[in-house]
Amino acid sequence: MVNEILLKQLLRTMRIAFINAGMYHEEHPLVAKSIDALSDTLHEVLKDQMSVEIGFTSEHIMVGTEEFKGDRLYEEEARYFHIRKVKSIRISTGVDTSELALFVKELSASPRALDEAGGLKVFIEKNDLPHIHISALDYSPFLGSSGQEISEDVWNYLLGEVGTLQTQEDTNGFISRLTQAIEQMNFHELKSDSEDFLRLQDIVGQLKEKMPDVSQSLGKEVLKAVLKKQEQIQDEKVLEQVRSLFSRLSRKSQIDTLWNEVFGSKSFNPVIFSVFDRLVEKDNKEEYLQEWDQKLKDHTELVNDPHLRERVKNMLVMEETNVYMPQMYRYTLTLLSSRIGVDLKMMLNKNALFRNYLFALLNLLSWEGHCESIIPLCDELLKNTEEVSHVHQIELLRQFHQALSMKLVHLDDARIKEEIRQREGVLLTKIEEVIVEGTITIDEDTFEYFIGILERSQFSSDLYFKKIFGLHPRRQHVVRLFLKFFPHLNNAFLEQLKKESTNVGFLKEVIEALNKVDTRQVYSILKNIFLTANPLVKIEVLKAMQNSSYVEDDFVLENLRQDNVFLKKELVAIVKKKTPEVQKKAGELLLSVFNLFGINNRILLENIRLIRDAQLASSREKLADLLKWFLCWGGTPLKTEIERTLSEFRKL
To answer: So what's the pLDDT on residue 69?
Structure first.
C-alpha cells in the first residue's frame, strides 16, 4: 500500500525542483535548496523500501498496480512527464544530490528543447544514473490507435526520433512508424500550415540534413505512403503541398518508387500514374518518361515472370474504362506488352515447368480412380512440396489436402484409405511446420482452412512457447494454433504474458491474434491482460473484446466508472451488443456523475456524447430528468448536448 501523503509530498517537491531549475541557472541557491528538499523527501519515502517507481499516463499516475487520479496534483504531474515522453521513473536507495541535480536539469527543459537535444533516449544513453531509471514512452506500436493523447504527441515523438537513429534496425523501425503515421493523415484536410504537414516536412528535412546516406530510402517510403493516398490528393492545392516532399528526392528515387508501386504493390491503382505525373514539373516530364522507358527495357523479368505479365495486361485492360492513366505511360506499357508477345515464344522457365509438373500430378491425383496409382502420386507430391516458391507451396499444400480428403470420402478400399491417412498425417505435419516456422506468408483464408484441418499438434508446447515469446515473424498464427492445441496450458500462457507486461508491441500482436478467436478461454486471457495493462494496451484489449460473446456484464459496467474517455468509448461499443437491460444500466451509470455544483460537467458532457453516438436510447428518461435541472440554471453546453441527444433519440 502506497503512503499517499508521502507520495503527494514527493510530487510537490519534485515539481518545485523542476520549476526552479527551469527558471534559474543550475548553481542558483533556490535550485540547490529545492534539490535538497527533494533528496530529503526521497529519503523519507525510501526508508522502508528499496525503490519507488511512478508510472505516468496523460491523465493520472500509477505506483505499482494502484492508480492515483482525481487530484489536480496528479493530473498536472502526469501531463508534465507524459509530454516529455516519460513512461515511468524508478528511484532507488542510495540516490545522491548530484544524480538528482542532473535528473532535474534534464527534465526541467521544455519538450521541444528536449527533442532538439536528441530526446529522452539520448539523455538516458549518455548519462550514468545508477539510482535513477527512466523509461521512455514509445508510441510506435500504437500509431494510428483511436486515442487523442496519441495523435497529439505522435509527430513530436517521430521528430525527436530522427536524431537518435544509428543502426539499420533503428532506421527500419523508424521507416515503419513514419509510414504508419502518414497513413493516418487525412489529405482531404491538408493545408500548407497544418501541424501534421509542417511536422512531416520537418522530419523529411532533418533526414536530408543529418542522414544524407539514408534520406533517399526514407524519402521513398514517405512518397510511397503518400501515393497510397491517391484518392485524397487529386486537388491541386493538396498536390502543391506534396510536391515539396517529392522535390526532396532524387529523380532515380522518384522513378524507383513509382516502379515499386506499379509492379510490387498488390493494391495497385492506375490513379498512381496520374498523381505521379502531376507531381513532376512540366519542364522535366520528358526526362522522367525516358528514364521510365529505360527501366522497362532493362527489366527482362517482366517478360519471364507470368505474374508481372498479368499485371501489365490488367493495367491496360483497366485503362480502357479509366481515364486516369496519362497517355505517355499507357504508350510505354503498350510497347512492353507487344515485346512480351514476341519474347514469350522463346521463353523456357524451368521453375515454372517444375511447378506445372507438380500441379499436373495434383490433377492426376484428383481424377485417378485406380487405387494402386494413388499412393505413388501422393509420395511424389510429398517429396517435392518444398521445391516450389513459397506462394505456390501454400497453394500446393492446400489443394493436396483437398484432393486427399475427396479420396477418403469416395474410395471403398480400406487398405488404400489407411495408406492415404498415413500420407495425410505427413502432410498435416508439413502444414503445421510451415505455420510454426513462420517463413512463409499465409493469407487469412488459407490459415482458416489449415487451422480447421489440424486436430492435434505434432510438436511440443515448449516449441510453441519459444516461438510465441521469441522473435517470430508470424507470431499471431502460432498463438492461435497454441490456443487450439493446448487449452490446458492457459495459466502457463498467462504467466508468460505477465513477464511481457511492459512490451506493448508484443502485447498488441498477441491481442490481434486473440481477436480472431471467440472462446471463453480467450476472453479470460484478454481480461487478465486488461487488469495489469497500461491505458494504451487496455484500448486494444477492449477492441478485441467487442468481437467476444463471453464478455461479462459486470466487467463492462464496473470499468465504465473510470474517467478515461477513450476506454469508455470502447466499453460503450461492447455495451451496444448487450441486452437492453444492460444498456439501460450503462446509460444510468454514465449519467450518474452529474453534480449540482458542476464539478463533473466535463466528464458528463463526454458521457452524453458517448450515449448519443452509441444510440443508447434507453437513457431517454434519465436524460430528460437531467434536462430539468438545466432549464432552471446555467449549464448551457450541457443543456444543448442533452437536447440534441434527445432529439436524435426521437427519430429512432
So the answer is: 82
